[in-house]
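Dear all,

This email documents one entry for the complex benchmark we are building for the journal club exercise. For each entry we list the sequence lines for every component of the assembly. Then comes the predicted three-dimensional structure of the complex as a token string, followed by one or two observations. Please use this as the template for your own entries, and keep the labels exactly as they appear.
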Amino acid sequence: MNDKEILLRSIQEVEFALLELNLYLDTHRYDRLALMEYNYYAQNLMMLKYNFDMKYGPLMNFGFSPSVDGWRWIEGPWPWE
Amino acid sequence: MKEDNNANNAGVGNVYPCIYPIPFMPQYVALANAYVPYQQHAKSFLLCEALKKGTLFPELYQPYEVKIGGGRHNE
Amino acid sequence: MWVYEKKLQYPVKVGKCDMRMAKYLYTQYGGPDGELGAAIRYLNQRYTMPTNEAKGLLTDIGTEELAHVEMICTMIYQLTKDATPQQMEEAGLGTNYAIRANALFPADPNGVPWTASYIQAHSDPVTDLTENMAAEQKARAAYENLISMTDDHGMRDALKFLREREVVHFQRFGEALRIVQEYQAAKKIF
């Protein structure tokens, strides 16, 4: 794996944990430990995504990622490629 | 547990009872109802493990073992 | 509002050697128990859910199902993108080629287009959540069928991930149902 793939993999891992905690919290809104875990990983994800956006172009569209060095959103490869 | 968090939660009618905490299994069960045990989350997989396994929760990890006769080479 | 993220939920790496799987994977794209049906089912039912727990859960699981559609499509695309007409025919996708060459299409393995009649909505939360629990079990069983049909390591890996997601979704819908049951019981008492 190259550096980009390694960073993307950690984003996938953290995001997956957040998705799981999100679904869990949907049905366990008063679970304080799960909520703490969620907020901890949310911080983590923000930093990872910021790193990715800066190095490899926007991960998300519509202004959720900045696009430094020109309009890199349309650079390939796309996720299915 | 805050009562006001539960306002508008029932959606129907004017009464919004506090139903939490919900027990692992219901205290009173009725016929013709389906009940799923309510998860009590305690520990998580490591993040790299969780993604590989498809769940963060060890208690929900139920991997599938390919049946004998399954798989192309076992036909 | 939805926002796109330029990555897959789970990395998909499929070998080229098992092209017949492309046809079978279509069951999870546009088939009756596929991911597209799941996404539309949940995102459509959420409007009439009575509890905030269920509204949130249907929104979130419906959104995750869209990511699963993307994974399935990626697998099909990876397997068929460079296939010649002859290879498509050998993989049982000759009719697909005749109609639309190597393009993807939301249909089942027999080419039957996806239809909204695969889903249902009643506004009765017990009815809708029970349908969703059944849908998750049907999808889980379909993934087990698909896993048994391939030896490709990367494909099995992705299919096992998707299968486990069905298990987790079943649990969450079951909990949403428990919450509805508790509210209905509490309303009778108070």
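Observations: The CA atoms of residues 141 and 163 of chain C lie 8 Å apart. The mean pLDDT of chain C is 96.
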